[in-house]
């Protein structure tokens, strides 16, 4: 499995994420034991195992952007919509 923050974590690659039950079935079919472990091969707390078993292996979808017009308007200073932050200079589309 790839971690959620990996470069391949995008809508096109979500099929790489599998629920724990599927991974356990794959291991058992290959005659191998399965066990959750931490990144450093330590024991996983029981509450994390329970949370993992309750998950379907996918992250929730992000909410859609509702006000897309604000992203395309230009103010008199040449900055774009709300895509600027104080002191950081213009961000986003420019003229």
Task: Please provide a brief summary of the model.
This protein is mainly alpha-helical and 95 residues long. Helix content is 20%, strand content 0%.
**Which residue ranges are poorly predicted, with pLDDT under 50 across at least 5 consecutive positions?**
none
Number of strands: 0
Distance between the termini: 43 Å
Measured on Cα atoms, how large is the radius of gyration?
22 Å
Helix content: 10-25%
Label the overall shape. elongated
Proportion of strand residues:
under 5%
The main sheet comes to:
none
Summarize the helices and strands and which ones pair or pack.
Elements (H helix, E strand, L loop, with lengths): L19 H10 L16 H9 L41
Can you give a write-up of this model?
By secondary structure, this protein is mostly helical. It has a domain at 11-54. It has two helices and no strands. It has helices at 20-29, 46-54. It starts with 19 loop residues before the first helix and ends in a 41-residue tail after the last helix. The model has no long low-confidence stretch (mean pLDDT 73). Residues 71-95 are annotated as: Disordered. Residues 78-88 have a biased composition (Low complexity).
Highlighted features:
95 residues, mainly alpha
């Amino acid at each position: 499995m790839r971690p959620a923050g990996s470069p391949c974590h995008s809508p096109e690659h979500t099929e790489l994420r599998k629920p724990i039950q599927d991974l356990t079935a794959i291991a058992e079919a290959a005659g191998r034991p399965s066990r959750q472990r931490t990144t450093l091969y330590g024991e996983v707390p029981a509450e994390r195992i329970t949370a993992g078993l309750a998950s379907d292996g996918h992250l929730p979808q992000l909410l859609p952007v509702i006000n897309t017009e604000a992203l395309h308007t230009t103010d008199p200073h040449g900055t774009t919509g709300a895509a600027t932050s104080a002191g950081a200079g213009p961000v986003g589309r420019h003229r």
